[in-house]
Write a structure and sequence with these properties.
It is a single chain. With 72 residues, the chain is mainly alpha-helical. It has one domain. Helices cover 75% and strands 0% of the residues. It is built from three helices and no strands. The longest helix is centred in the middle third of the chain and has 22 residues.
Amino acid sequence: MIFLLLIYAYIFIINVPGLIKRKEWKELAAFSFLYVIAFALGLMYVLDIPIPSPMEGLQHFFVDILGIEYPK
């Protein structure tokens, strides 16, 4: 777990100051959003917490919300 934190801290320290210095706020927001998702998934993996399947979420979205199904 310490290794995961060190890697993510290193990536943060390398990328974020340049984005702030160049005032790239949209890129910083996108980077932060993806960074938090990646960190959460990595932390769940390290702590042996079951990671939810993205296919189940997509299936729920298409079948239950949009009403689109494969023909049977």
